[in-house]
Amino acid sequence: MAIRGILFDKDGTLLDFNATWVPANRAVARMVANGDEGLALRLLEAGGQDDATGTVKPGSLLAASDIGVIAEVWGELAPDHGQSDLVGMMDEIFQREGAISSAPIDGLANTINSLKEHGLTLGIATNDSEAGARVTLAPFDVLHNFDFLAGYDSGHGAKPGPGMVHGFCASCDLEVHEVVVVGDNRHDLEMGRNAKAGMVVGVLSGTSARGDLETLADHVMENIGGLEELLGLSTVVDLA
Fold first, then answer.
1. DSSP for 101-167?
2. In the chain, how many domains are there?
C-alpha cells in the first residue's frame, strides 16, 4: 500500500493541547459566564476541563467538539450570557487567546519539514476554525509545508465525519487509501475510519491514553516523531 499523504489533527497532535487551550478555555468560559467565576468553573467542568490541574479530559466537549457544539452546551448552562452571536464571540476569543498561549509539541518543525522533504503531501483537519488553526500555528514556521488546511467551518463538515479526509483527497489529487490520518483523539481516528483512510495512527501527545485509541488505530505512538520510522524515508512510502 503506497502512502502519499498525511492528514494531521492540530491540537494535541501538532500543538501541546493543555498548554495551548486550558488558558483559552478559561477566558472563553468567563465571557460566557459574564464574569461570574463560579459559573465559569461550572462551564469548564461541564466541558471536561479540570481547572485545578490544568488538564482536559480525553473525549470531552473541550477536547473533541467544534465551537458550535460547545456554544450550544454552554449557552444552555448560561442562558443569560447576553451574547446574540455566542459562536462568533467564542471563536474570536479562542483565536486571540489561542494565539497567545499556543505551544508546539516537541520537534514539530523538524518532523514536519522532514516529512515534506520526503515527498509526502501534508494536510491539517481540525475542529477549530480555519482561521483559528492558522493563527495558532503561525508562530512555528510550519504552515508553508501544508497543502491543505480545514476547520469545522471550511465546508467539509466536522469530525468525526469523513468530509475533511475527502476534501484533502480532492484538493491534493490523492486516493483515500493513500492517506494516513493522525490524531490524539477518538474523533480524529473515527474520522479516518469513516473515510476509509489507508491508515489511522493515534498519538499520545494530547489528551488521550493508549487505551482510548488502540481499538480504533492501526498504530499508536508517543508523538508524530514516530511517523518517519513507521513510514520510512523514501519519496513515495511503500508499506506493501
1. H--BPTTHHHHHHHHHHTT-EEEEE-SS-HHHHHHHHGGGS-GGG-SEEE-TTSSS--TTSSHHHHH
2. 2
